[in-house]
Amino acid sequence: MSLDRSADDLLDRAFAALADPVRRSIVARLSRGPATVNELAEPFEISKQAISKHIQVLEQAGLVSRTREAQRRPVHLDPAQLEAVTAWIDRYRLIHEEQYRRLDALLESSEDTGGKEEKR
Amino acid sequence: MSLDRSADDLLDRAFAALADPVRRSIVARLSRGPATVNELAEPFEISKQAISKHIQVLEQAGLVSRTREAQRRPVHLDPAQLEAVTAWIDRYRLIHEEQYRRLDALLESSEDTGGKEEKR
DNA sequence: CTCTTTATCAACCGATTGATTGACTAACCT
DNA sequence: AGGTTAGTCAATCAATCGGTTGATAAAGAG
Question: 10 Å Cβ neighbour count for B66?
Answer without folding.
Answer: 17
